[in-house]
Specification:
Strand 6 and strand 7 form a beta hairpin. This protein has a five-stranded mixed beta sheet. A two-stranded parallel sheet has the order 1-2. By secondary structure, the chain is α/β, with parallel strands linked by helices. It contains four helices and seven strands.
Length: 152
Amino acid sequence: MSRAFVKDMEDVEDLPDRPISELPNDVTQEGLQQIEQALSEAQAAHAAAQTTGDRGAVASARRDIRYWSARRATAVVVPKPADNSVVRFGHTVSIVREDDRRQTFRIVGEDEADPAHGTISHASPLARALFGKGVGDVIAIAGGEAEILEIR
């Protein structure tokens, strides 16, 4: 590889960092695996971008490596709750809203949350409203109410 090519790649400006939450980085075991996978993918993308000389892709991959490295360094795996009497991190909770819509969510870490697939962040308003509540309790959410049907 010519020295000129290496010099060009060293001059790639980094993109601004992705914002990192100030909340505790609690994760499930699956969430930790997702973080490690994302870090591995970012490292592979960085290597591929360097090979092709794609400066934009290098900068993007570097930003992702910084983000996922920080998230990996601060991740705290929270064990599955042994007690299902009140809602905690890692629980799957079923609720029924005033309009009889039934929904089930698992409370997980911020990076692993995907409401379309039934997971919500522990930092979300819904999760915060559920924490510490038990079956039969009613919570105020989204301008209405919902009753907790099941905690598992």
